[in-house]
Amino acid sequence: MLTTPHDNAWLDLVADLVAQPLTAWPAEEVVELLAGTFDAPAGSYYGQDGDVIEQRPWPADFGGGVDRAEIERWTIEQAPREHPLLRWYLASGDPRAMQVADVPTTVASVGLQDQWRSLCNEYLGGVSSQMALPLCLGPTANRTFLIGREDDYSAQEVALARRLQRLLTGLDRQIACYARWVHLVGPCALEAASAGGLTPRESSVLALLASGYTARAIARRLHVGERTVQKHLQRIYRKLGAGDRLVAVQRAQLIGLLPAPT
Fold this sequence. Notes:
Elements: H1 7-19, H2 27-37, E1 42-49, E2 52-58, H3 68-77, H4 79-82, H5 84-92, E3 98-99, H6 110-123, E4 129-137, E5 141-149, H7 155-185, H8 189-196, H9 200-210, H10 215-222, H11 226-240, H12 245-254
Antiparallel strand pairs: 1-2, 1-5, 3-4, 4-5
Helix pairs in contact: 7-9, 9-11, 10-11
């Protein structure tokens, strides 16, 4: 198992993000730590929600001479055909972290990979050895962290990236669920949660509980263990003074943690 000088930094970051009421990724902070972990000079966060696309490069001034509008146009119009990693994900459906060097030539030919490297040399200072850590891959939603450097990543580094990917995927599920909960309950959601003493993770679990999910289903949805969910439920019941799911949901509705029943 590969360890890095950044292990403590990852533990601190995850502990901090789990406790924050996040409805969107603090992308630059995560990309910076990913880049430091893998000795990469640059990285980015790519998010797509329907027709809305968000690209956040790190460092912000990387490739200062690059026409950002042109890069965005290429990402939308040409990347599905010409980016080796995107071709891999579209062809395989395999969501694991992956680097360009490991994409089979049956998916991205030698000529296409040479064309990709030439593009990187021209616009990105040679950081053609990209690695992607997808957190959400779907027909209308995509959230992915990418890092890039000149030399390929070792097998140990790819394995480490996949471990970190599982960690980040769990955080992504919480952020997405928490954002939906805030949107559902309205602007008073955060105040109600604070008054009730519920953490962001507990609020997310409560929202899923009210939607009819079992503990096992909540665990799958948030990418955590079922025992962890059971502990969250115990704390939620205690804080709401409830003994079961029905009473917990009813009391949460009364104090504004969930929408009133219709």
